[in-house]
Design a protein that fits this description.
The chain has 200 residues and is α/β, with parallel strands linked by helices. It contains seven helices and five strands, in the order αααβαβαβαβαβ. The longest helix has 12 residues, at 108-119.
Amino acid sequence: MVDSCLECKWCKEGEENYCDNGMTGTYNGVRKHGRVGGNQDLRTYGGYTGSQVTHEHFIIKINPEMDLEKTAPILCAGITMYSPLKHWGFAKGGPNQKKVVGVVGIGGLGTMGVKIAAALGHTVVAISTSANKEKIALDKGAHHFVVSSDPESIKTQAGKCDIILNTVSVPHDLNVYLQLLSKSGTLVQLGGVGAPHSVS
């Protein structure tokens, strides 16, 4: 984000992306609040710009000793996976806060989700349609691996996940993953799917 009003209810609660007065996004955003310099008639171009002015509230200082190739994914895939964990109360510390986190889709987002959930001390269940992803999931910190196309594999973790982070961005059957949720579990859909999901 480049800017928001910083005055409305949502901005004050740290949910600036829901700004009642409209936020200015990094890509194709309209400068609305008069605090961001540059040509006010031009939309923002994000990573395609030679330079960009952003309100200081939305700037993160990166330690110059950090490897930028390893830091950059934290600011995209990392926040995408950490944000729902924080929102649903899975980012708190302490032994009583340790839960079971399922991660569907062991690609770029999914492997980051596995690493973050494991680093927070949770038991991590990696879930993929392909058994070929098991080694990478376990190497990244998963404790268990489920092949979602195998009913017997699903049974091994049925009812155990307190939260499932679903990164899959193609049409798929959510009912398969609902079997893995605990009684009061939460399924978070992160992958952008172009068609409505069918849920029983």
